[in-house]
């Protein structure tokens, strides 16, 4: 599986800008994140994950989704957050880039939100515990901050 985007800090360099639109928001702990809805293929419950040796530490393993092998990225590990037990709200968000699928493991899904371009602030400095290379911007909806993730870097910006 190959990707054309490296793990550079594209948003900090001003290469990537975020347009407004629909975003799927979800939680990791108390922090709320958002991803562009057009990157989402589907949301599924947590299923059996098969560990695979020699994977990056943040890859929990793979799942078989309708005869497609899908790597599962544990966002808590990816962002160096403390581990948490799975609950009935824990889900996998399956993301698509071209023909490639990757799933991200999240604590719970919140909503599909319409975030206008003027509600999105660029990342100037570190604003959370995660590296800015993973972020495209901050969505500010009536005082509620959602960290908008750069899906290309978070889920597809590395080789497996």
Characteristics of this structure?
5-stranded mixed β-sheet; 6-stranded mixed β-sheet; mainly beta; 160 residues; single chain
Notes on the structure:
It is a single chain. The chain has 160 residues and is mainly β. The protein has one domain (21-154): OB fold (Dihydrolipoamide Acetyltransferase, E2P). Helices cover 5% and strands 44% of the residues. Strands 8-1-2-11-10-9 form a six-stranded mixed β-sheet. Strand 1 (21-28) and strand 2 form a beta hairpin. The longest helix is centred in the middle third of the chain and has 4 residues, at 75-78. It is globular and about 40 Å long. Residues 1-15 have low confidence and may be disordered.
Describe this structure in a few short sentences:
With 160 residues, the chain is mainly beta. It has helices at 75-78, 151-154; strands spanning 21-28, 31-36, 40-45, 59-65, 68-74, 91-97, 100-106, 108-115, 120-121, 135-141, 144-149. The longest helix is centred in the middle third of the chain and has 4 residues, at 75-78.
Domain module count: 1
State the strand order across the main sheet. Answer: 8-1-2-11-10-9
Helix content: under 10%
Shape estimate: globular
Distance from first to last alpha carbon: 6 Å
**SSE ordering:** EEEEEHEEEEEEH
How many helical elements? 2
Radius of gyration: 15 Å
Instruction: Give the strand tally.
Output: 11
What is the third-level CATH name, the topology? Answer: OB fold (Dihydrolipoamide Acetyltransferase, E2P)
**Helix/strand/pairing category:** mainly beta
What is the H level of CATH, i.e. the homologous superfamily?
CheA-289, Domain 4
Let me know the average pLDDT.
88
Approximate strand percentage: 35-45%
The assigned CATH architecture is Beta Barrel
Characterize the biggest β-sheet.
6 strands, mixed
Q: What is the CATH class name? A: Mainly Beta
């Amino acid at each position: 599986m190959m990707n054309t985007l490296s793990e550079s800090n594209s948003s900090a360099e001003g290469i990537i800008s975020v347009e407004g639109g629909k975003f799927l928001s979800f939680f990791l702990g108390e922090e709320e994140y958002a991803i562009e809805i057009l990157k989402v293929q589907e949301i599924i419950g947590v299923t059996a994950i098969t560990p695979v040796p020699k994977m990056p530490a943040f890859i929990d393993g793979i799942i078989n989704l309708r005869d497609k092998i899908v790597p599962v990225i544990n966002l808590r590990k990816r962002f160096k957050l403390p581990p948490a037990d799975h609950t009935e709200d824990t889900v996998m968000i399956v993301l698509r880039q071209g023909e490639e699928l990757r799933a991200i493991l999240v604590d719970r899904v919140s909503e599909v939100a319409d975030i206008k371009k003027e509600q999105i602030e660029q990342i100037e400095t570190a604003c959370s515990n995660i590296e800015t290379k993973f972020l495209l911007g901050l969505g500010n909806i009536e005082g509620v901050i959602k960290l908008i993730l750069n899906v290309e870097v978070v889920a597809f910006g590395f080789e497996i």
